[in-house]
Amino acid sequence: MKKEFMTQNDTEADMIFDLADEVATETLAARIAGMAKPGDVFTLIGNLGMGKTVFARAFIRAHCNADEEVPSPTFTLLQTYEAKETIIYHFDLYRIEKPNDAIELGIEEAFADGLTLIEWGERLDSLLPTNRLDVNLFPGDSTNARQVKLTGHGDWKIRLIEGFNQGSNHD
Question: Can you tell me the distance from the alpha carbon of 12 to that of 72, in angstroms, rounded to the nearest whole number?
Fold first, then answer.
């Protein structure tokens, strides 16, 4: 996993990582999972096949157990998992038509009580909380490679900077 660069302004901080393969995506997800605390929200953004579910699966397994079955919630829209300290809510909003549809799924409760992973999180628009970490996945230099842009909003700005060695190119 190679960190390319970091930028920041008054409201957010960005870090970009080049990930060679699915294992590197899982490693980054597990590292971010280790920084997570109840009430955190993570939006997973990227085209189909970019690794949103791979990221979510590794994150959830880091909090539950390595053998946890983590299906994509594409059709159920929501899967929940009992973690050691909280509940993990895993939403897939690909099929919702408008942001308010997510309220019917209990997303506000998830924001208040647990760790929330939201595939296609950009579909929430103005319903997204101020404090969150956006995980944007893009194609990398090869078929299995990905580039990931992490954007920390609110208190995630500082947590992102503190959670990764700012001066290091390799984590």
Answer: 29
